[in-house]
Amino acid sequence: MESQAHESRDMTVDGIAINILSMPEAVSSIVSAAQTGDSFSVCTLNLDHVAQLQQRPDFRAAYRRARFVTADGFPIVALGRLAGTKIERTTGADLVEPLCEQAGSKNIPVYLLGSNRLTLHRTARRLASRFKGLQIVGYDAPGGNFDPYSDEADRAIEGIRKSGARLCFVALGAPRQEIFAARCLDRLPGVGLLCIGAALDFIAHTQNRAPLITQKIGLEWAWRMLRDPRRLGPRYARCMSIVPRLVASSIPQIVNARTRKAA
């Protein structure tokens, strides 16, 4: 399984290979894997994740086990384009609704994990009413201090298994959701786990996402920081501090891309 996860990837960022370059590719690849009964995980790489990868070997290991990795964040997209890769930003939040549409039409049962019971109830109701045929076969809201190695995590895994789901949207925040998803790979055969951050809160309207124009021009991070500067200011400062190192480490890819283009 792990060898498949690294085939045909087109770029790396700080040692993490990205193999899904657009939203349509992400949706088609995930649906195809779910239909074939594979167990797999999906991670969406952004600068905050890259910063945390330096401190958490288990987080890096979870990324390396992911079948599909997308670029979530314009700095990651920009690095890819500098290296000659045509890549689009694909976030976990952007994936939920198109995947639910496909799950409804292709009879792929879905499970929701994360956030809180009220948000999950609202999200399940809205998704089921929006997408014909969608089966949401269960949902669970672990506690706020969820530990992906705990007995609570084991109970969550068992709940997913009993539900019969083949896709599970995991909204626990990084790095917990990625580590949890990696643990599930050996214990939930036939289940795909997608790490989606705050996507369920956006759908339930318990959190507001940045306006679309802000997302398109790459300033979603600024919009979020202005709304919660005390929490997000230090995080984004840490993220910006690693950009020079990432650019420097990408120079060989950039040079190779320019050389191929000139040849």
Automatic annotation (TrEMBL):
One of its GO terms (molecular function) is hexosyltransferase activity. CDD domains: Glyco_transf_WecG_TagA (cd06533). This is Exopolysaccharide biosynthesis WecB/TagA/CpsF family protein. The keyword Iron does not apply. InterPro entries: WecG_TagA_CpsF (IPR004629). It comes from the Bacteria. It comes from Afipia massiliensis. The keyword Ribosomal protein does not apply. Keywords: Glycosyltransferase, Transferase.
